[in-house]
Amino acid sequence: MTQIDKKHPSPEDNPNAEAVDEQRRRFLLVTTGVLGGIGAACALTPFISSWLPSAKAQAEGAPVQVDLNRLEPGQQVTVEWQGKPVWIIRRTKKMLVQLAGHDSQLRDPQSLVEQQPDYAKNQYRSINPEYLVLIGICTHLGCAPKFRPVENELGPHWPGGFYCPCHGSTFDLAGRVFKGVPAPINLEVPPYRFINESTIIIGEEEEGFSS
């Protein structure tokens, strides 16, 4: 005669055992999925926060360090410095070509008005032609212009640039203001410097220059 150990009942003794086991398996799968999601979110946090200045830097208006490695050609990223939005645009070769040929349409093509440090007083209004750094505030009434880099997007002669939806001011891909719009001067270039080929510090002057 076979004796059954009651401490380990068989499925025949408990018809609900399979259902209970199935519920346990589902619970473990859900728990594992949730924990995996939390881990993924934690892994992404440094990627996102690295684009943002620390709370201390924001509060004190301290210089802001920005890693440019993840900025693809043609893209724009916005960071905050001294409570202001600062745009960083990685210009493509085509965008740089688009800067030529429309000086006659600009109010201040040579950047004679002091809206930029001396090291950004050139056609590109930048240290490295590839990277444009601007304060993203319209020089008319302080609105936020929009990035409109595509040629002819705003008309047949549009070379690409920035458009302010508040009152229609337009700027080219170096932040230079066009004639016939409310904004009186070019967009401002903040002080900044490169500490290596792919990292800039906004709020510090380029070496050898002072404000």
Automatic annotation (TrEMBL):
The main subunits of complex b-c1 are: cytochrome b, cytochrome c1 and the Rieske protein. GO terms for cellular component: plasma membrane. Belongs to the Rieske iron-sulfur protein family. It is an enzyme of class 7 (translocase). It comes from Legionella drozanskii LLAP-1. This is Ubiquinol-cytochrome c reductase iron-sulfur subunit. Its cofactor is [2Fe-2S] cluster. GO terms for molecular function: 2 iron, 2 sulfur cluster binding; metal ion binding; quinol-cytochrome-c reductase activity. Its EC number is 7.1.1.8. Binds 1 [2Fe-2S] cluster per subunit. Keywords: 2Fe-2S, Cell membrane, Disulfide bond, Electron transport, Iron, Iron-sulfur, Membrane, Metal-binding, Translocase, Transmembrane, Transmembrane helix, Transport. The keyword Mitochondrion does not apply. InterPro entries: Rieske_2Fe-2S, Rieske_2Fe-2S_sf, Rieske_Fe-S_prot, Rieske_Fe-S_prot_C, TAT_signal, Ubiq_cytC_Rdtase_Fe-S_su_TAT, Ubiquinol_cyt_c_Rdtase_Fe-S-su. The chain crosses the membrane at residues 27-48. Residues 98-201 form the Rieske domain.
